[in-house]
Give the backbone structure.
Amino acid sequence: MDKFVITGNKKLAGEIKISGAKNAILPIMTATLLTSGKSELINVPQLIDIKMMAHVLRVIGARVELEKNVMSIETEHASFYEAPYELVSKMRASIYVLGPLLARFGKARVSFPGGCAIGTRPVDLHLKAMEQIGAKIEIEHGYINASCAKLQGTTIRFAKTSVGATANTLMAAVLAEGTTDIFNAAREPEIGSLIDFLNNMGAKIKGRDTSHLIVRGVKELHPTTQKMIPDRIETGTFLLAAAITKSKIKISNCFPQNNQALLDRLKQTGCELVIDKEDITIFPTNVIKPVDIVTYPFPDFPTDLQAQFMALMTIADGESRIEDTIFPERYMHVAELNRLQAKISVQNHVASVKGVKELSGADVMATDLRASAALVLAGLAAKGKTTISRIYHIDRGYDRIEQKLQRLGADIKRIKG
Ligand code: EPZ
């Protein structure tokens, strides 16, 4: 297994270009199953999760190619309506095939996703919505068996806002008979981007960026081509890399409006930001003011930046409080950050971070994608050498992060395992 070795306490400088958004691309890849023919996704990075989703689609019978950041997906021969355990257990997002397979073939067999490092992560909201829209759901031998004669438009009120359940429901509803009203829908930019893709395929969805989506079912869809939106979590991670190393960096190719909650908190820490249409320049502050965060669904502070923000708070001038209401167990990075001499304690699902003068390099272990990013940031700021093992987690969702950081002047090396 590969490792990162970082010699920290060095300033970064320069410009970094943001890649396409993993969490927008994954559902869009499965949306191509809603029709027969060749769709093209532009601005797709080489990430392990994206390769895994390509594998899921190939098992179903699609032809998937990724060349120079353009992914083509040919679904003419996609007809095997199953996502097997071997794949779903490696990547929960495989559940995104449920809605499209049901809508196109009236059948889907998807392995029941298990827990993961950031919590138990149930799929009850997905299943309930599929039932409400007319599917029969049976759980058997660890598999979700879903079937329907024809999906029927209905009213769905989510008890909790869920990105995944909103995406799956949208993908089922676009080919249903009649109109589906979705209340308490997720408003994440990745959902907006899925709506654009589905509408480009010929779907009729209204209410983009609001929590009430109205889907008028259509008889059929057609393949399309779309540019993928920039990754707001990668954007945030690089902004925080600049803040923690007290460096000036320009982040280009991003959509600043998708990071407003983070930008507001960064300003409160004392950083200055110059925001343009598609880029952000961050001017650091020497004394980082402590800032509390609580994660909530978009447009509030994202859970996927909680760990990285906590890394910044470890060297703030005072104490901060961090609470993750989306995944209340998502604190695996705390013990590892403490190995770098951070002072963090967690009580009743709330982390208290006492800022220290400096972090000190150590051997640490990555436990999940965003936890790994937090350790990279902490390693960049820490004095001495930090070795991060199990970095395959970071390759799941960051596009060659060490190469991008090296271009900014960071001393980070990948040691092949
Ligand atoms: C998506 O996961 C993202 N994954 C996650 O990113 C992200 O952390 C999360 O949304 C929240 O923003 C992808 O887009 C592939 P949810 P998802 O359904 O859809 C509860 C990363 O690091 N819930 O919005 O699985 C759930 O437990 C990853 O890139 C139910 O109770 O998240 C959580 O508390 C990790 N029942 C809340 O809803 C359900 O059926 C929101 O989860 C579904 C969810």
Notes: Residues 23, 26, 93, 121-126, 160, 162-165, 302-304, 326-327, 369-370, 397 surround EPZ (CB under 6 Å).
